[in-house]
Amino acid sequence: MHKTLVFAPYRQDASLLGALLGEHGIDHLCCTDIDEVVGSLHECTATIVTQEALTPQTLDALGGALAAQPPWSELPFLLLLDGVQRSGPSLVGLEDALPQTKLTILQRPVRVVELLTAVQAAVAARRRQFELRDHIALQEELQRELNHRVKNTLANVYAIYHLTRRQSGSLEDFAERFEGRLNALSRVHAALVMSSRPRSIADIAELVLEPYRSSDPERIQVDLSPLLLESAPAVAFALSLHELATNAAKYGALSAPSGHVELRCVMAPGSEAVDITWQETGGPAVAPPTRRGYGTAYVRSAVKGTLRGALELVFAPEGLRCVMAVPLSTFAASPADAEAVASVL
Amino acid sequence: MLILIVEDNSLLAFMLEDALTASGHRVLGPALSADEALGLVAQERPALALVDVDLEGTRSGIDLVHELHERHGVPSLFATGQLQQVCANATPALGVLGKPFSPDDAAAAVDAVGEWLMGHRAGPLPAVANLEWFAASNRAWRPQRRVREH
């Protein structure tokens, strides 16, 4: 695809040069007119031009095309001249007429070895320029992606702020809830938002529930399979667990010294969904809430929406039970597929 | 009004649902992909769609907005952080609500579009925080509605 251009419109020059390059395995294109040269200029590895081809018109067209090169590009330009007149008019101003070029002048008759060495050096230099181009493009892509993720993170913080403000009765109430949610988001942020790698529900539960187990690791028993979630559903699952845990710490099993929580997942034979069950025991007697809480409203919305599942909340006297039935299609297919999904970040 | 929400971020989807139902609207979705959104629209036609650019699946929010407009006659507002991508593409969307936006911004945007679509409001769409209206698509929508009204 990347070829060395040859523009030698007179005599047998083009066919002789072409045969020589072909013989030595250098991919090339012999151009018959200046439009063809200009059209292929940005993608070529080098350009070989004979003295006779450089009329004022061609110089003009070449100069325009060369000036339009991107900043990383400095096209290798090989010029074949009869007898070099260093002070002669043909060379004066050539550097200016051919901007952003790596100009090499070869005196005819050119020895084969000299020409081939010059072409090979030009191709190698050009290849490094293409590498630089690819590197710049990758950097720009990463910058865009990072920008996007930072914006997404800010949008999450904004959403938490607005939702908590709506829910809270006092500033103290707001401060406590907001800090708890912000803390939960921060704990999963690096793993779930800034990384493209899917995470297992077991890992996510460990991250979110860690603060609630610090006094007694046995209080929360987690037994989850290594099913993987992509970033958005992983955040939904993490924040849902946070809402359940913070609720349990305030009113439920984690508010009493004897209370326990079990988090398990089960898949019924033939079922297309995984039941992830949060079961509280040993806490104060549970009564159904008198008004619809924001925490549970979020969990309901997140499970139904982002996780594409169904939620069952049972306020049994012996302890709250929450079953998230999440369809298999929500999970990242397999670790092998997950590797393919993971991008450069 | 019935509002379709197309957003895979659970927090933003919940915030939109909460804000729109609080101001008297009904919510369709949230859908996570263009296919899912079109499946919902086939069952019940919304008055307006709020669409994120980055969606699950192969089709983007930009594709979805075209399809909603051309095949279903459903107007859209982008709700996205990717303002540059949206502005660079000719789109039939009415405008773009830039992330991060507040629940009040979203409700105000939806109410403004509602009044305007019903023909209650003459002249240009009113200024709403974090919202940029697309002049070209406003012209495209207007005559269609006027024909229906009279």
Plain-language structure description:
The complex is a heterodimer of chains A (345) and B (150). Chain A is built from ten helices and twelve strands. With 345 residues, chain A is of the alpha/beta class. Chain A has a five-stranded parallel sheet with strand order 2-1-3-4-5, sandwiched between helices. In chain A, strands 7-9-10-12-11 form a five-stranded mixed sheet, with helices on one face. In chain A, helix 1 links the parallel strand 1 and strand 2. The two termini of chain A are 30 Å apart. A six-stranded mixed sheet of chain B has the order 2-1-3-4-5-6, with helices on both faces. In chain B, helix 1 packs across helix 5 and helix 2 runs parallel beside helix 3. The C terminus of chain B is likely disordered. The chains are: A alpha/beta (345), B alpha/beta (150). At the A-B interface, helix 5, helix 8 and helix 9 of A face helix 1 of B.
The low-confidence runs of chain B, each spanning 5 or more residues with pLDDT under 50, are 143-150
Number of domains of chain B: 1
Question: Total strand count of chain B, please?
Answer: 6
Overall mean confidence score, pLDDT of chain A? 88
Q: Return the string of H and E elements of chain A.
A: EHEHEHEHEHHEHEEHEEHEEH
Shape of chain A: rod-shaped
Beta-strand content of chain A: 15-25%
Largest sheet of chain A: 5 strands, parallel
- Overall structural domain count of chain A: 2
Helix-and-strand structural type of chain A: alpha/beta
- What level of helicity do the residues of chain A show? 40-55%
Which characteristics define this entry?
heterodimer, A: 345 residues, alpha/beta, Rossmann fold, Heat Shock Protein 90, 2 domains, 5-stranded parallel sheet, 5-stranded mixed sheet, 48% helix, 20% strand, disordered C terminus, B: 150 residues, 6-stranded mixed sheet, 6 helices, 6 strands, globular
